[in-house]
Design a protein that fits this description.
heterodimer; A: 361 residues; alpha+beta; Cytochrome-c3 Hydrogenase, chain B; three-stranded antiparallel sheet; 12 helices; 14% strand; globular; B: 131 residues; two-stranded parallel sheet; 3 helices
């Protein structure tokens, strides 16, 4: 049969970011997909040659506007590991509060984009209106809605006092209650189910073989979540991975819906279990130059991110590399679009929650 | 590098259910300031809380075997090694033919390219040691 190549992206109505896929079609069926991820490649990793390690954190958190807090956190964790910095406990707890807030805002952002792609604009507006509340909390606690610059090597720049933390937990609880209604629509609405159920199926076996991470893997029944490793104080929380077994677009939506509610509960746990008392130290003075190498793993909203950092005793790092979750999920995404109808490609691509800014560091 | 022995070690990780987490390369400039260089390539694997790495040091032009027979998802990392570092990875299951990245600078992490950028930034005088 004659094959046709249709390029999707970098600009496409359903793509929030400029992913490029060359789709090879036989009639309306996709038989192959060739990814290209260089459209907005910025070469941020190469900036370690010119930007001192103390300043590089500002660059790293600008890899992406949605994952900015956790990029900054991962970079600081890596340098703290190499330099054997003892980070004050208060700072470590505060980082987790912001990390889980990041997950809530990222998932709400994606759920809005997803709803828009399904043609459900009211749901899009509901999700984004709720996300604004999280951005308000970020602005209130860090000074920034998107770029926070609250992490520093050795701790954090700002404290959140105990009464403010309790107010944030209460506000999130109200948000979680209000989210119940759109959550129910995402899970049960017949038109959404009709559009997503059984589309873009990734089996558990394929998810494992293709190295899928994050909600994408968990929607295929793979219980992989870096938070379960118990690092960075996650061992102090009660946390269960959110698992669905459908492996289709709907399962990926439902995992994210449930994770919004899970992260709201985790912030409550953090606020309740954090050692109380205002005025505790939130950072440690860091001196000297880093020498050594480390690999730090974190669970970003889209899945496991890995920071590979190598320092050679100068003020410039020898290597910084961020392996982002979208990069890890591309092989599985290509696998899913093979054999599907052309009309389903946008939804399949969207349900991996692609972050091209992260992928094109 | 001994490709067969390396693939045996990777195959053992795959057989025991370890997942491939990342393949990362670092360009190394010669410490004596001469031309050339090398690469440290690290293959990282995880199983539950265990996290292990295989590392090989290769020279420009050395052939590095693809591990895509054991880990199908490795093709993306291996195409990246070839395009960004100029490392000769052989036998990649999905060879994207240099179309993965569209960088303004060809092979931006080749030692020669790094040396040129460092010299341009004033961090490295021509012919001097690695900073």
């Amino acid at each position: 049969m004659k094959q046709t190549v249709i390029p999707i992206g970098p600009q496409h109505p359903v793509l929030p970011e400029p992913l490029v896929l060359d789709l090879v079609l036989e009639d309306e069926k996709v038989v192959d997909a060739i990814p290209m991820i260089g459209y907005v490649h910025r070469g941020l990793e190469a900036l370690v040659e010119r930007v001192e390690y103390t300043e590089m954190g500002y660059v790293i958190e600008r890899i992406c506007g949605i994952c900015s807090f956790m990029h900054g956190m991962g970079y600081c964790l890596a340098l703290e590991d190499i330099m054997a910095v003892d980070v004050p406990e208060r700072a470590r707890w505060l980082r987790l509060v912001w990390a889980e807030l990041s997950r809530v805002q990222s998932h709400l952002l994606w759920l809005g984009l997803g709803a828009d792609a399904f043609g459900f604009e009211n749901l899009f507006m509901q999700a984004w209106r709720m996300r604004e509340e999280i951005l308000d909390i970020f602005e209130q606690t860090t000074g920034g809605r998107i770029i926070h610059s609250v992490n520093r090597i050795g701790g954090v720049r700002r404290d959140i006092d105990d009464s403010e933390l309790a107010a944030i937990a209460d506000r999130l609880e109200r948000l979680g209650a209000a989210f119940e209604q759109p959550a129910r629509v995402f899970r049960t609405d017949p038109s959404i189910r009709h559009r997503l159920e059984g589309v873009g199926v990734l089996s558990e076996k394929d998810a494992r073989a293709l190295g899928a991470v994050g909600p994408m893997a968990r929607a295929s029944g793979v219980a992989i979540d870096t938070r379960l490793l118990g690092e960075h104080l996650y061992d102090r929380l009660e946390i269960e991975p959110i698992i669905e077994t459908g492996g289709d677009c709907l399962a990926r939506v439902v995992v994210r819906v449930r994770e919004v509610q899970q992260s709201i509960g985790l912030v409550r746990q953090l606020v309740e279990r954090m050692p109380k008392g205002d005025g505790q130290p939130i950072d440690t003075k860091v001196r000297g130059l880093p020498s050594g190498e480390t690999f730090i793993r974190l669970e970003q909203p889209r899945g496991e991110v890995v920071y590979c950092v190598r320092a050679n005793g100068t003020k410039f790092l020898e290597r910084f590399r961020a392996r982002t979750p979208t990069f890890a999920n591309i092989p599985a995404m290509i696998h899913m679009v093979k054999g599907c109808d052309l009309a389903d490609v946008p939804n399949i691509v969207l349900t991996i929650d692609p972050c091209i800014s992260c992928t094109e560091r | 590098m001994d490709g067969a022995a390396f693939l045996d070690r990777v195959g053992a990780y795959a057989r025991y259910g370890w997942r491939l987490v990342v393949i990362n390369a670092t360009s190394l400039l010669p410490a004596d300031g001469t031309e050339g260089g090398a690469f440290d390539i690290t293959w990282s694997f995880a199983l539950g809380k265990q996290f292990e790495h295989l590392r090989e040091r290769v020279l420009p032009g050395d052939e590095v075997p693809s591990i895509s027979a054991h880990y199908p998802s490795s093709f993306l990392y291996e195409n990246e090694l070839r395009e960004l570092f100029g490392i000769a990875v052989t036998g990649i299951a999905v060879d994207l033919g240099g179309q993965l990245y569209r960088t303004a600078e060809r092979v931006p992490f080749a030692p020669g390219a790094i040396r040129a950028r460092l010299e341009a930034a004033g961090r490295l005088e021509p012919g001097t040691k690695q900073p």
